[in-house]
Specification:
This protein is an alpha+beta fold and 750 residues long. It has 3 domains: 2-429, no CATH class; 440-591, Transcription Regulator spoIIAA (2-Layer Sandwich); 611-749, Jelly Rolls (Sandwich), CATH 2.60.120.10. It has helices spanning 2-41, 49-70, 82-98, 104-131, 143-166, 175-181, 184-203, 210-228, 233-238, 265-269, 272-297, 303-318, 329-337, 343-359, 361-365, 369-390, 397-412, 415-435, 457-466, 481-497, 515-530, 542-550, 567-591, 598-624, 683-688, 709-718, 720-749, and strands at 78-80, 325-327, 440-445, 470-479, 502-513, 534-538, 561-564, 630-634, 639-641, 650-663, 669-675, 679-681, 695-707. The strands form 3 sheets. Strands 8, 9, 10, 11, 12 and 13 form a 6-stranded antiparallel β-sheet that branches. The two termini are 72 Å apart.
């Protein structure tokens, strides 16, 4: 029984929350409908104002029910939106100017047709984006461009509110003329209402009752003041304080579609710039709102499903001449906050608008004009404050300048021009910023950065002296024409400053490359080829490799260009050529009797003396351990052991080469080290008991000594001193290898 009582309380609370939300949004959106109709028609075709109100109410009803019923989030509130309304107001003014002198029926028909066309195209755009699953396109729109569009929309709403209140168009360059013609009464009241509502909503952002309460309270206060001052409804109506003229019968009787034969289609299509702007901004706004609702809902939405739902709704409302509709993020947030998350809220909200549609004439009789004007003033100021004041310190100066610039371009040249210039400016700034990003993660040379191949002391010293001929650049990020050109210029500087013979570009961290950047690489290959510098491109992705091949950037086209799948082997190839070239130079100098390489000889001699103890220790130890060792002859391709196998044997390389390699999680093999004579492998598994961490493959034919686990135990039992010397040798050689590894890591990190 207690559980039933608890469930009943929860259910009652949900019903109360739902009905509260319906009442709030019903009153609020009815007021918005009146305001929107007034903004579009009061200055152009005032006789059709009531017709517009009735059609917009019906459209709001359809949009709310369709979108709510089909949305992936049950708690959405959908309605005609301010962004398309603001631009629709511009369309109405433009058509009124083009068709100057036309009777109201003609003007209404053309305004209706233009708005209907914009909404239908918006619906088609929504459907196509949803059908082709392109809901994430909003992420490609530059933030300052969106900010500039929304700021400009706010400015248009503000101007529209001023015009509704005065009947005079507001232009920034004609402020003095505006105030001379404007009736100050409604203007002052509209400004006070709009600014006051802005202050209240910012002061109490989470209170759902602020906006509808302010609207209802302002209407009642106005009518009460009028009654106390002795002004009747007739006086208020005749002096322009109320909306009108209004019919006596219900609003549904006023709903009517235009005579299609009166439409001047060339004039309508002359508004195509503004129509396209409505489509673009509606798509942007919906996708942005969807992102915001995902945050409110705490889960991902099925954006493409929502696009389809909104597309269907706008196709339905477009045929009755309504501006575009989509989810209302602020109202959806308020509905969620007060616990009204059922689909019934959106459906009942639609029926509330339908009820006003059937009986709303009486309600409109009492609606002051300054409220209809004050609402777009409030909406406009709210958007301007958000995108000009709040955002000021949150974005870089350049981005803020774009936002302000778009606002001014829209005001003086038009919305379409603002879109074009805003996008171009954002692209230019993006290119500039991205070009300044250093795509070179690491810069190394062959004197400190080495391959995994073990080399003789002489070869090592040659690389110490001549390794700067090799330059290794590790690249990162996405490469486009800006960063590619920067890379080209830097490599030109590097090769001009030093005697570089090999340039290695490691592209393992490169995500992609555009076609213009490929041309820069062609240019680089040609430049280096003329200077007889080898260019090695390492680790390009399949897409990058295909782009290079398609553009003709191949080893066949450029003699000194090579491609490698890993940095280690590319570095080894360069080292081999450096060692070979410098060895030949020394030999030629000796044959010519020139004293060259003396310094190198001294250094090599010092190194040899330092390493002699290790080599002597190695040879002596092998000789003393021969009775415990097994000599094996190996051919290229043989394996001593495989990765993850149990291997307890120790191997001593006498002749040939052994390559140690490891398989990563992606199934790719990479080299760890190449061992030459007088080296040891297998010691990790033998002494620590681990599975082999890598493959040991014979790279060149040779011979090795094998110390099995059984023989090692025998050695430890029979000759502990010799076993200790073996361990000392292994520790010494591991220390030398660790020192080399540390140097390589330090080079890459630096």
């Amino acid at each position: 029984m207690p559980s039933n009582g608890s469930g009943s309380k929860v259910k009652n609370k949900s019903i109360i929350s739902n009905l509260t939300a319906v009442a709030i949004f019903g009153i609020l959106n009815t007021s918005f409908v009146v305001s929107y109709a007034s903004l579009i028609f009061s200055s152009t075709v005032p006789s059709y104002f009531v017709v517009a109100v009735s059609l917009f109410l019906l459209a709001g009803c359809l949009a709310s029910i369709i979108i709510c019923a089909m949305s992936s989030y049950s708690g959405v509130i959908a309605m005609i939106q301010d962004v398309p309304v603001a631009i629709s107001g511009l369309i109405a003014l433009s058509l009124a100017s083009m068709l100057q002198g036309a009777n109201p029926d003609v003007l209404f028909a053309n305004i209706f047709a233009a708005i209907a066309l914009a909404t239908l195209l918006t619906g088609i755009a929504f459907l196509l984006l949803g059908y082709f699953k392109l809901g994430n396109l909003v992420r490609f729109i530059p933030f300052p461009v969106m900010g500039g569009f929304l700021a400009a929309t706010g400015w248009l709403l503000f101007k529209g509110g001023l015009q509704v209140s005065t009947g005079v168009g507001f232009e920034i360059l004609q402020v003095a003329s505006f105030f001379k013609q404007a009736d100050p009464g409604n203007l002052i009241f509209a400004l006070v209402f709009g600014i006051g509502l802005l202050i209240l909503t910012r002061r109490f952002p989470s209170n759902a009752l602020v906006t509808p309460g302010t609207i209802v309270g302002s209407i009642l206060l106005f009518l009460l003041a009028a009654r106390l001052l002795g002004y009747g409804m007739d006086y208020l109506d005749s002096n322009g304080w109320l909306l009108g003229p209004l019919p006596e019968e219900p609003l549904w009787r006023s709903a009517a579609l235009p005579d299609w034969t009166l439409i001047d289609w060339p004039a309508v299509f002359g508004q195509i710039g503004s129509i396209v702007t409505i489509v673009v901004l509606s798509v942007i706004s919906l996708l942005l709102n969807s992102t915001g609702i995902e945050f409110i809902a705490g889960r991902d939405l099925e954006v493409n499903r929502d696009l389809k739902a909104t597309g269907i709704a706008n196709l339905a409302t477009g045929f009755i001449g309504s501006p575009a509709s989509y989810v209302f993020i602020s109202q959806t947030a308020l509905a969620t906050r007060i616990g009204a998350k059922d689909r019934s809220v959106g459906v009942l909200h639609g029926f509330f608008l339908l009820l006003v549609f059937f009986i709303g004439g009486t309600f409109l009789d009492f609606f002051p004009k300054f409220i209809a004007a004050g609402l777009p003033i409030y909406l406009g100021l709210s958007m301007l404050w958000e995108w000009l004041v709040d955002i000021r310190r949150a974005v870089p100066r350049v981005d803020y300048a774009i936002i302000v610039g778009i606002l001014f371009i829209v005001e003086f040249f038009g919305f379409l021009q603002g879109i074009g210039i805003g996008i171009v400016a954002s692209v230019v700034i993006f290119v500039f910023r991205y070009s300044s990003i250093n795509i070179i993660k690491n810069k190394m040379d062959g004197s400190s950065f080495r391959s995994s191949k073990d080399r003789s002391i002489t070869d090592q010293r040659l690389l110490d002296y001549h390794g700067e001929q090799l330059m290794v650049l590790q690249l990162q990020s996405f490469i486009f024409f800006g960063t590619a050109n920067s890379l080209y210029e830097k490599i030109k500087q590097f090769t001009a400053a030093k005697d570089i013979k090999f340039v290695v570009l490691d592209m393992q961290l490169v995500q992609g490359i555009d076609s213009s950047a490929v041309k820069s690489f062609e240019k680089l290959a040609g430049h280096l080829g003329k200077k007889e510098i080898h260019l090695l491109i390492v680790n390009p992705s399949e897409k990058v490799r295909v782009s290079f091949k398609s553009a003709g950037l191949t080893s066949n086209a450029f003699e000194l260009l090579q491609f490698y799948n890993d940095l280690d082997h590319a570095t080894e190839w360069c080292e081999d050529l450096i060692v070979k070239t410098e060895t030949i130079k020394i030999q030629q100098a000796k044959m010519e009797g020139k004293e060259t390489g003396n310094e190198l000889f001294k250094a090599v001699y010092a190194d040899m003396m330092a390493a002699l103890d290790i080599q002597v220790m190695f040879e002596t130890l092998i000789d003393r351990m021969k009775k415990y060792l097994e000599l094996l002859e190996l051919s290229q391709g043989d394996y001593l052991f495989r990765q993850k196998e149990i291997s307890n044997d120790v191997y001593f390389v006498k002749r040939g080469q052994i390559t140690l390699s490891r398989m990563n999680q992606e199934g790719e093999s990479f080299r760890i080290r190449t061992l030459g004579p007088w080296t040891i492998t297998g010691e990790i598994g033998a002494f620590l008991g681990y599975h082999a961490p890598y493959d040991a493959r014979v790279e060149k034919d040779g011979s090795i000594y094998r110390l099995t686990a059984e023989k090692r135990k025998q050695l430890e039992a029979e000759d502990p001193n010799l076993a200790a010397e073996l361990q000392k040798l292994i520790i010494t050689m591991l220390g030398v290898q660790l020192m080399k590894t540390t140097r390589a890591v330090g080079t890459m990190a630096g």
